[in-house]
Amino acid sequence: MIESEKLIETIVKEILKQLPNIQTVGYTSLKTKKTISIVSPTNRDDLLTNVLPFLKEDYYLINIITSTLIEERSDHQEQFDEVILKEEWDFNQKHTDIVIFTDLSRAIIAKTALGISDTFETLWIEHCLATGKEIIMLTDGFVPFTGKEPQPYVATFEHYFETMSSFGIKLLEKKQLLPFFTTANQSDWEIDKKVITNEDILTVGEGGSLTVVSNAIVTLLAQETAKERSVKIHYKGINP
Question: Looking at the whole model, is its pTM more than 0.90?
């Protein structure tokens, strides 16, 4: 009987070795791919529609969604490996390596910068910061200012963005998301932007180079990060 149990155990282990998409999740599952959890409290996951197929090749994708949207967005759910209701998510049972927030409300920005954790999103951000998980926030999901707000109010949120960046939170535009994942180890990169931010520098592998347009403005934080990561910045037509 004992020999039979050992044989069954051996067979199970061999089968598990053949499964390519398995790693440890919580205390029971197994997956080799890193897991990306995408939090979509509203319909902002449309920002990722063109990016998801590329990410799915190398990552296990989980969509965290509200019950009111799960039927409305059913046509998009096939792009994910797993769909979980926000109300059913359990930090202790589910593993994730990277969290992407598509809905960047002013409340989330302010509470994150001030260290306030009293909602599902801000509690998750607190958990990620405490456990060293990577956080990405898509700035496309931020509702632009109308231009009628008092300048001190706008300046406050600019400071909040800087504070979140100092926490290690990646603030990316949707168009930067795919390059961020596909070029993390690429040593040379070229970007056609007039303002080069910290996130742009982070897309380049350490010791690499970034070629920018001749009149590009590199923010102070981006300059500091480039120095820390030994990333050389080349201006088109100015230096080789």
Answer: no
